[in-house]
Write a structure and sequence with these properties.
By secondary structure, the protein is α/β, with parallel strands linked by helices. Helices cover about 50% and strands about 15% of the residues. The chain has a six-stranded mixed β-sheet, with helices on both faces. This is DNA-binding protein.
C-alpha cells in the first residue's frame, strides 16, 4: 500500500515497519496484541481501519506512548470506506478496467469540479466533513493520474442514463463534465456507452460494479454497500459478473449513439 493513499495505509505501513524491525511475524505480533494474524494483516494492508483498542495495544507492544492511538483517530475518521484503499491499489495495476455506474459520473471520468460539487453535497448532508471531502477529491485526482501510465489500461465505461442527466453543480460544471466525457471517447484505450432508461429490466445490474483484469489475466470485481466495499479476488466468482457486463454492453447504446446523446444534452445547457 502507498502510505500516502489514506490514513489507514499510513498506519499499516508504520505498523509493518516496526514489526519488521523487531523481527516479529504477523502471528507473533498478534499474540502480543490479543488478536489474530489475519487481523494484523488486514490492518497492515489498509483493508481494515485500526480500532482505538487495537492501536492502544500496539502502543503497549512497541512502547510508543500514544503515537499509534493518535494516528488511528485519523484512520477511523477517513472518508474512504473499508475495502476501497485495497481496491485502488489493484486498480492502479490493472490491464483492463470495466465499470458500470448509476446516478453519478464514475470517479475515473469526473472533473475535479464535478467531484468537488458531489462531495460538497455530502458535506451539506453532514455525511462527511469538509476535510474528508478534500481527501476524496485528492484521491480521485491521484487515481486518474495513475491510469496515465504506459502501457495504458483499457477502460470500458457504461453509464446509466441518469449519470448524465442528474444535475451536479453549476451549468458550467456540467458543461465541462460533458466535455470531459467526450474527450474520454477520443482516447485510443477507452470505450464509453450509455445504458438508456429504455433498457428497463434488461439491465443486468442495479448497483455500480467494477471488473478488473490484471496483467496475469486474473479477474477481480469490486462493489460497494453503504459502509464498505467488497473486493472479490476469485476469478471463478467474477466470471458470471463479467458475462453480465458483456450483456450490458450489448444492450447499451453504441459509443457513437452515446456521444450523440451527450452532445445533445450539452447543447441544452449552453
Amino acid at each position: 500500500m502507498d502510505p500516502e493513499e489514506s490514513p489507514s495505509a499510513r498506519f499499516g505501513q508504520r505498523l509493518r515497519v516496526l514489526r519488521d524491525e523487531r523481527g516479529w511475524t504477523q502471528d507473533e505480533l498478534a499474540s502480543r496484541l490479543g488478536c489474530s494474524g489475519t487481523h494484523v494483516s488486514a490492518v497492515e494492508t489498509g483493508r481494515r481501519p485500526p480500532t482505538r483498542r487495537f492501536a492502544a495495544s500496539v502502543d503497549r507492544a512497541f512502547g510508543t506512548g500514544d503515537r499509534f492511538e493518535r494516528q488511528s483517530r485519523a484512520a477511523r475518521h477517513t472518508a474512504l470506506i473499508e475495502g476501497f484503499p485495497e481496491y485502488v491499489a489493484h486498480e492502479g495495476r490493472a490491464a483492463e478496467v470495466r465499470l458500470y455506474e448509476v446516478g453519478v459520473v464514475p470517479g475515473l471520468l469526473q472533473t475535479p469540479e464535478y467531484a468537488a460539487a458531489l462531495e460538497a453535497d455530502a458535506v451539506r448532508r453532514q455525511a462527511i466533513t469538509s476535510e474528508q471531502a478534500d481527501e476524496r477529491v485528492d484521491l480521485l485526482v491521484r487515481r486518474q493520474t495513475g491510469l496515465l501510465r504506459s502501457p495504458a489500461p483499457l477502460i470500458f465505461a457504461v453509464l446509466d442514463e441518469g449519470c448524465i442527466r442528474r444535475p451536479m453543480g453549476t451549468a458550467a460544471i456540467i458543461e465541462a463534465q460533458f466535455t470531459r466525457l467526450l474527450d474520454f471517447t477520443e482516447l485510443p484505450n477507452t470505450v464509453l456507452q450509455v445504458a438508456p432508461f429504455s433498457m428497463g429490466a434488461r439491465r443486468p445490474f442495479s448497483l455500480p460494479v467494477t471488473v478488473l483484469t490484471m496483467p496475469d489475466r486474473s479477474l477481480m470485481s469490486y462493489a460497494e454497500s453503504t459502509h464498505r466495499g467488497h473486493l472479490e479476488r476469485e476469478s471463478t466468482f467474477v466470471l458470471p459478473i463479467l458475462a453480465a457486463y458483456h450483456q450490458l454492453q450489448a444492450e447499451a447504446l453504441s459509443q457513437a449513439a452515446s456521444v450523440a446523446m451527450i452532445q445533445e444534452l450539452r447543447k441544452g445547457i449552453s
